[in-house]
Amino acid sequence: MSMPNTFNLKAIKFRLSRFRLTNKHTLTLAYLVLLLLPFVVAESLGMLFEGMYNRVLSALNLSAMMAFFVQFPLAGRLRHVPLFANIDWSIAKHKKIGKYLGVFFFLHPLLIVAPKMLLSFDALSTSIISMITSPQLLTGLIAWVVMAVWVLMSVYKDKLNMRYETWRLWHVIGLVAIATLATLHITTVGSHGQYNQEFNVIWWSLYTLSMMIVIYNYFIKPRIIQRQPFTITSIEKVSPCDWQLTIESKSKQRFAFEAGQFAWINTSGSAYNLEQHPFSIASVQNNAAQLSFIIRELGDYTSSLNQLEIGQTVFVDGPYGSMSLDQSRTSQGITLIAGGAGIAPMMSLLRGLARQNDTRPIRLIYGNRSLERMVCLDELEALEKRMANVQLQLVCQQLENAKDTLRPYVRQGLIGKSEIDASFTAGQQQNWAVYLCGPTAMIDATTTHLKQLGLASSQVHFEQLAY
């Protein structure tokens, strides 16, 4: 009878040993603590109302308002603020939380009058009419309408016949308008603001900080970036659908970054222009003041890369991203998995490892539609010959040349579990680090494979750059 219990105990211990508190877990916990702060303050001041329904609704209202203000730093590219420095995580949460806030703000007036339904339909209709027609509630009503439009524009962004820069401008204007109206509403009409003016200091302080983030991002930061311009030194087509862009600081000052990071580049001629695009850095950190990017033509801006000219001014905002070789310092081996344009950060990481003369097993799995679409093949093959610990695996959906199948490191198909499993030294999966970059579908499929192979989330590092 003791054997099943012993087995279960061992299984639990094994699962606990496999769980590691990752950076993203820490960020999520810190974010939740932030959301609860207004509720804790209200509780300490004895401001919460009696009755379970009012108490819960009050907690939800306060947390939702706090979540709205946190939307500003989440989208603010605050790389020097640890809580918001993980840009990929922050932008993903900005999008997701924005949708939840839209739903909650829509339900907010309905939740307030919901108890009236228990009395009578007349009481409910009277309350609704009163809310709509009351001059005191006008700020809340306008904020409610603007929020609905703001969320719909965000959800259906890809379906709108609107340039991204135009959409972004209206997105920011809407965010500022909602913040202004909502702050006026909660401090003049909201139950907490009405009865405790000191509590309003919290909301006006948060509003001020939010506006400072907007002013910094759209007026102060561009001025700083404009003083540190780059110039295009090379623009070369390296495959039928990929370009390699190399830029150099005009001041010859070294641009500090970690292998695996990315930056927003602006080729419009003005640092204040909203036409900024995030691309992974493909070069490795060195003493030169140059940066290199491998960029795939995916429409919109990238389809006009052939119009860039040598000597053209470029403004760079960065570096950003938490993916770096520091994440694998203690790992016994490293697997790099790239899909399509995802090769750029993998090249940066691989070049960084080669520069350090890293002797650990290093595997690169590179997938693409065809062999001719793959870039840097000569460099990769030379690196594999020079470093005995480096192994290359190319995976192509189509092999147009029969000779390509004779190469031992070329396979037809998609990157799957077998290729990933083969990249690990037998029995060393638990001590391996994996870096990913590629289309969202590939990232999702690969992370599923890695989980099935027993790797913990703390061993897998990726950023999607879907902004």
From TrEMBL:
Query: How does this chain sit within the bilayer?
Result: Multi-pass membrane protein
Known cofactor(s): FAD
- UniProt keyword Metal-binding, yes or no: yes
Q: Where is this protein chiefly located?
A: membrane
Where does the protein end up?
A: Membrane
Q: Which residues form a coiled coil?
A: 373-400
Q: Which part of the chain is the FAD-binding FR-type domain?
A: 225-326
> Its Gene Ontology molecular function terms?
2 iron, 2 sulfur cluster binding; flavin adenine dinucleotide binding; metal ion binding; oxidoreductase activity
Pfam families annotated for this entry?
FAD_binding_8 (PF08022), Ferric_reduct (PF01794), NAD_binding_1 (PF00175)
Which PROSITE patterns does the record associate with it? FAD_FR
Gene Ontology annotations for the cellular component aspect, listed alphabetically = membrane
Q: Which InterPro entries match?
A: FAD-bd_8, FAD-bd_FR_type, Fe3_Rdtase_TM_dom, FNR_nucleotide-bd, MRET, OxRdtase_FAD/NAD-bd, Riboflavin_synthase-like_b-brl
- Report keywords, A-Z: 2Fe-2S, Coiled coil, FAD, Flavoprotein, Iron, Iron-sulfur, Membrane, Metal-binding, Oxidoreductase, Transmembrane, Transmembrane helix
Q: Determine if Transcription regulation is one of this entry's keywords.
A: no
The signal peptide stretch is none
Q: For this UniProt entry, which segments traverse the membrane?
A: 58-76, 97-117, 137-156, 168-189, 201-220
Instruction: Give the superkingdom in one word.
Output: Bacteria
Kindly give the PANTHER family that the UniProt entry links to this protein.
1,2-PHENYLACETYL-COA EPOXIDASE, SUBUNIT E, NADH OXIDOREDUCTASE HCR
Report the protein name in the record: Predicted ferric reductase
